[in-house]
Predict the structure.
Amino acid sequence: MNKKTKIVVLTENDPNYMQVIQEAGKILREGGLVAFPTETVYGIGANALDEEAIKKIYLAKGRPSDNPLIMHISDLNTLDKYVNDINEKSKQLIAQFWPGPLTLIFHKKNSVPDIITGGLETVAVRMPKHPIAYDIIRSAGVPIAAPSANISGKPSPTRGRHVIEDLDGRVDMIIDGGKATHGLESTVLDMTGTIPSILRPGSVTRSMIESVIGEVSYDNHLEDVTQVPKSPGMKYKHYAPKAPIKIVVGSDDRVTDYINSQSTINQSQGLKVGIISPIHRVDFMQGDVVLSIGSIDRPEEIASNLFKILRKFDEVNVDIIYSVDFQGEELNIAIMNRLIKAAGHEIITV
Ligand code: AMP
Ligand code: MG
């Protein structure tokens, strides 16, 4: 793959804004690939109704073909062209959270190509809120399949430069629109069962959903790691930097002592040690590269920094990474879900 990729830096008040949006919309409509910011992470978009275009996404990302894509729409009136049984609860959630970082799973109609759903009878749909994402989809005039704009397995991209690192030469256009708002992928909620089930936690949390529609559950694998996830993508090793990560759980002091003593041992073995620390503990951590992930009082900040930090460790070539864990706030469930996967479930309790 060696395409000429057009890279455009774009803000909403850019005088060329509509021109760039229209160019991106045209590329998508005609079967090309465009990467753009959304309020979750950056997405790599293709015309969801064009099988050849979708194949290009799987190729550009190196994504396993059984991992289905989310279909992104900009017009609610088009939803029932693609899905069956939009029940009352779905309608309430749509009214509350769309456009926004909540993906809903419905039974699909035949108009949705099998290649998007990896052969499943269901399809995942979302309406993004980020103006660039929303306007591009509207301009394309077709639904857009848009998984995260990273090479499969790497941390999701939350900044334009992450996308350029991974996809320059693999897509037709990259729009660099700054920082993705939340920095975590959308919450995925399966609406096809009797009780809606969260397949992937995100910034729309369980209690936010329950406050609108009543009881929802977590998919079994989120509460018991031995269970097979219902969302095919959740079974893959994901979000991982090159170096192994170990998550250390315990009281502040014990965690700091443990990480520092392991770090000393690793350094004596000639290894370069990275540490993920909340800002209030950075000065107490002893490693080669100690990165602050933000304040534990602001989980949104931690969410927004997580993937950036995982990528940073690749740039500085550490050999091993230690991280504290994050608890207490509901958003931390989504943060820990990504961190635990990045760590391949390496958790040490001290
Ligand atoms: P990404 O495109 O990288 O945001 O990942 C999309 C996530 O949604 C993956 O974990 C997919 O496995 C999941 N997903 C997409 N479609 C479905 C579906 N029909 N049923 C269950 N999970 C899905
Ligand atoms: Mg992804």
